[in-house]
Amino acid sequence: MLEGLIRSWDGEQVVTRFDRPTETWMFVCIHSTDLGPAGGGTRLRTYETPADALADAMNLAGAMTLKMAAADMPFGGGKAVLAVPAPLDAGDRRELFERYGDLVGSLGGTYQTGPDMNTSVTDMDVIGERTPYVCCRSVERGGSGDPGPATATGVFHGLRASVAHAFGSDGLEGRSVLVQGLGDVGERLAEQVADAGARLLVSDIDAGRATAAAERLHAVVVAPEDAIGAECDVYAPCAVGGTLNAASIPLLRCRVVAGCANNQLAEPADADRLRAAGILYAPDFVINAGGVLHAWGGELLGWPAETIAERHRAIGDTLLEIYERAETEGVSTHEAAERLARARVA
Ligand code: NAD
Predict the structure, then answer these.
(1) Of 190, 228, 230, 255, which has the maximum CB count within 10 A?
(2) Domains of the chain, with CATH numbers?
(3) How many other CB atoms are found less than 10 A from the CB of residue 255?
């Protein structure tokens, strides 16, 4: 199974290590170094099989190549997965990240990591004790810290550009925006959207979180099971992937989808389903690049804050270019974004 996956992958290399003390499979997947060293986060999760973990890392690494290229960054794409058999206690977790840091270090900079699902700035600090090839360590340790706020800012610019394309003006006054998932990114996006005068709807499986955000930001709470069918101008998926699929798309009552979640489309055909439904979709790997611009740009390219802010605004310009190309070429916005990114890699 693992062999078949590796043979059929279009990426450059897979580095595997089995960490015996914690029985964790480590997979570092380097998809492309054509534009520069591969960059991408490390995800920690329990999977049914090691093959499921490897497949996840491969898909995510390919998406990082597109994300870096679409953001016009001189980096390639990679991703790593630490497939733990069960949750680890703090001591085991620290030691796992120390050994994982050694593995990343052994690659000599071909792959530079950062946080992803279930990994934090604290984990990056541990990796950073063993290798310099890690972004988003804490600010006290010389890193750029949590990328969430920067991701939210990038999404906000992308959301406004998408509204401009769909409605003819980027003003959010009176527009209704549903933010699904009020975590690190979603809550900050919700704040910016509310500040811009939008009518905010919020939804989270953590009911306390949704209520607290709604009170603070004068928003309306939508139950998690009602989020897909909620009537709004913009649906911003900021929780999990796969919310756009054959079953959910016919239920959508929005004009624009623009949020930070990774892998929003369950399958590529969903991009065509959205197009057929007249819904403008902001490709996830374009709109959610703000954290990468902040961390890889700030830490590895030495960009000052003004440059990072400029590049965050450019996410909106890139999306407008993608929307125009999609219309001219008669393809989905997802396809147009992939074409733009692939042309840059080529
Ligand atoms: P997070 O874990 O901080 O927050 C996720 C939130 O979504 C939580 O409040 C959780 O309760 C809620 N949630 C989970 N499942 C839900 C569901 N089915 N319905 C409604 N709410 C649900 O995560 P985050 O860092 O804010 O990231 C959110 C998404 O954006 C993820 O898909 C992540 O991969 C992607 N992303 C994050 C960053 C970043 O910088 N953090 C960058 C790029 C992409």
Answers:
(1) 190
(2) 2-65+76-145 (3.40.50.10860), 149-290+300-307+314-345 (3.40.50.720)
(3) 18
